[in-house]
Amino acid sequence: MYDLVAGSKTVKSSYLLSKKSALELFPMLRGDKLVGAIVYYDGQQDDARMNLAIALTATRHGATVANHVTVTGLSKSANETGKQVLSRVHVRDELTGKQWSIPTKCVINATGPFTDSIRKMDDPTVKEICSPSSGVHIVLPGYYSPEQMGLLDPSTSDGRVIFFLPWQRQTIAGTTDLPCKVTHNPKPTEDEITFILSEVKNYLNPDVEVRRGDVMSAWSGIRPLVSDPNKGDTQSLARNHIVHVSESNLVTIAGGKWTTYRSMAEETIDAAVKACNLQPTSKSQTDGLLIEGAHGWTPTMYIRLVQDFGLDCEVAQHLAKSYGDRAFAVAKLAALTGKRWPIIGIKLHPEFPYIDAEIRYGVREYAMSAIDMIARRLRLAFLNVQAAEEALPYIIKIMGEELNWSEDEKAKQLKSATEFLQNEMGQTVNRASRDKIPINLTKDEIQLYIRRFQLIDKDRKGYVSINDIRRGLKLLGLKFEDSDIDELKRDVDAFHNGLLELADYLQVSNVTVFNIIIITGRGRKRCI
């Protein structure tokens, strides 16, 4: 069906795989019930950068873009025929609190899950046309799927679709599909995360242990599905879009999907031109129009970034893929590393290719908060919530330099971004699942382990790594056998991907090799 619909524009043709070939290409799969597989090709994008690139392209063609601005009301006045039509939009700057109104010839409502709230500003009695649905996704380590292949099953245990796909060198898995209320701050739940993990487990061989601690990030998105009055469950709702014009000329575009966004936009503008008697100077130009960053991009462009600027190869590939030909403008903002190689580009976190220059460039792309940066310019919050938290102080420092933030503002940004990671990116539910494990230690034992944790956490980071534990054991004059270290790594990795906070440390101390009697270098037995 994909090949038929795509016609000559298909990426590659689909094909069948035998059981043997499927396991060769996707060795993580269970083989006991596998008969074969169908391989089809689909596109993948960074939706946040895509959305931003579209906005930047609009500014290049004369649009004015305002970030963090909320519509608070709509006003009407009589047109030349005496009909009451929309004539002003009232807005509020959420950062400063400033309010003003914008005169308009036409208002287009393209607000996704908030569609009906805008429609009710136009007509409080209007019938709702959107049925919001919550979809939770989780991010797992990259070893859950091959680099160039994922898995999709349209028929899970309860009839919903399950997939896990390679994404940004990790694995993204989902999804749930449940009716929900519209909110600015959707949150994933433990039940939804557990459902996804249990479904993923059904497809993987026993060598891949599906662990709750492997969830590096989790979030809930709201899909603005168009209601079908003949069906009551959101799983059956169509993803197709509708364009509606109200009596007062509010043009609403609702539903739809990324793959048809240009067609949706063209149809919406055509409806606006007709309804509001606009006089365009040309017909639609969206067909073939390159968006920001596409003009000078080539598949090997990253090599020039490495050679011309002295960037790390992985960083250069990331910049070229994310920013297109704007990657050169980003690279010009990069700081010297002080190393022989790479020459420029200080990483925000050692495990990811994001660099300092992206923060400075992000401010030029309308980023006004730390949350904007970690979630809507970079994807760090979506890839690894712990890494995002660790990178926050440096990110806020750079943004503070660019935006002249006071110390109070920096503290405010840190607090709000930390709460965002905890509530909307799954950090709280991750910790709650960990806390269900009982700690069977006495009060004196707990105090002992707290002192040892503080000894190991010499930098007072609030967490320790395997290497920190190694150094701490050496300081105590204790030795681990290699097998003990391997077991410790497995237990540590079941929590925050190799990082332990105090509560994690107590959990591990309670159930693992921390309670093993080991022999020190002097032949004495100690319990650590």
Automatic annotation (TrEMBL):
Q: In which pathway does it act?
A: Polyol metabolism; glycerol degradation
Give the chief site where it resides: mitochondrion
Q: What top-level class of enzyme does the UniProt entry assign?
A: oxidoreductase
InterPro entries the UniProt entry points to: DAO_C, DAO_C_sf, EF-hand-dom_pair, EF_hand_dom, FAD-dep_OxRdtase, FAD/NAD-bd_sf, G3P_DH_FAD-dep
Any one Gene Ontology cellular component term annotated for this protein: mitochondrion
Q: Name one GO biological process term.
A: glycerol-3-phosphate metabolic process
Q: Where is the signal peptide?
A: none
User: So which cofactors does this thing need?
Assistant: FAD
Question: What is a single molecular function from GO for this protein?
Answer: calcium ion binding
Enumerate the UniProt keywords alphabetically: Calcium, FAD, Flavoprotein, Metal-binding, Mitochondrion, Oxidoreductase, Repeat, Transit peptide
Under the heading Pfam families, the entry gives: DAO, DAO_C, EF-hand_7
- Reported EC number(s) for this entry are 1.1.5.3
Q: Where in the cell is it found?
A: Mitochondrion
According to the entry, every stretch annotated as the EF-hand domain falls at 444-479
Q: What is stated as this protein's family in its record?
A: Belongs to the FAD-dependent glycerol-3-phosphate dehydrogenase family.
- Its recorded name reads glycerol-3-phosphate dehydrogenase
UniProt source species: Photinus pyralis (Common eastern firefly)
